[in-house]
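Q: How would the structure tokens look for this protein?
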Amino acid sequence: MRAKLAAIRRLAAPGTGRVRLRTLVYIRWFAVGGQLAAVVIVNFGLNYPLPLLACLATVAVSAAVNIGITLTRPMSGTLSDRGAALWLAYDIVQLSTLLYLTGGLQNPFAVMLLASVVVSASVLSRISTLSLGLLVAVCISVLAFRYEPLPGPEPLLELPVFYVLGVWQALVIGGLFIAAFVGSVAEEGRRMQDALNAAQVALEHEQRLSSLGGLAAAAAHELGTPLATIAVTAKELSHDLKPGSPMADDVELILEQTARCREILMELSRKPETEGGEPYSRLPLGTMLEEAARPYLTGTVNLTHDFRAVGEAPGSPEPVLTRSPEFLRAVGTLIQNAIQFADSEVILRARWDAGTVTVEIIDDGPGFSAHLLDRLGEPYVSTRAGADGEGEHMGLGVFIAQNLLNRTGATLRFANQDWWDWWGAGAIVRITWPRRELEHATSETGRVGEHAGQ
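A: Here is the predicted structure in token form.
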């Protein structure tokens, strides 16, 4: 599963192909058609003289580039972040050249320089969008002072300098605003979508494990009787064989391998993943928490359990939950995080009453970074620096856990313990559910996990 999460992370990284070549080619053809129509209408329809050859040559270059790319590259391919940025940079320079020939910022089509920045903000990385925004600012600054006269009726209209400077200021600020803020919002949306995809991968992984466990239990049950028959038959053959028979070794081998198969099936039957819809599919809260923590236990960190009822009715029965892949995966991830960064001990505390269930995971490690506390739960924000750099340290673990727990009605709170606390330094994760909602949600998600493999 880590490989899948890493693949999703690579998709979110700059440099990964996000823009289809066909889309950019079509956009450029649209621009070429619009530019050619404008030149023809102004020069021949309105009879306003233009530097016609220079204008047509500028438009023809873009058409030639498009034709060349169409003939040499598959249109179904994608461009990297850098390739798409260079593509849009060319469009900016080409349009700036055409504006230079037709009045500079006095040309009302100067606003089209922002189009490439808008496209970049929607699909490219923040650094590429900012770079294109700066390129637009440079081109606009040059066009404010260097340009051929705007074609029009005689005498030619010359706009006041302060008006041209106002247009320059508006376009520069608009371009930089789109690059900085619109680009940031779009990138955040892409990152969130990538993280949601990763959460879905994690959930599907847990559901497959659950369904595989059920298949293993069924296989152990169904194969038990044939293996017993084979074993009995082999024993009868061994008793009937005369001493020194050449078949004795073969019969002994059959008995040994049959015993080995029965041991394997017994081992499969004992695995917690095989409980499926059997009696152990509904477990007390404490047992569920212990099962979630079991894969991450180490010999160096002690895990202490503290489970009890609280409130006006201390004898309130312990919540009984259906084994849910979402619950086990999410709580297990948070316990794993605590064990990885604890110095010597992690406390797994559960409290419940008639209306509320609270689980706290407390470690005696360095705690969460203060500047990240408000951002924990966001995708690609790592809780604490990982040592191995594997997929679980990509900052997706807490995001996935929080989203899975939200499906069960949970509210998560991350905090560092105060220095005067009896436990001392360390991090604390508090998960709170309405009791009825938790019991209902795990029942529903448990059934979803069972049906996923059917």
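The longest strand covers residues 302-309.

The longest helix spans residues 161-240.

Upvote if useful.
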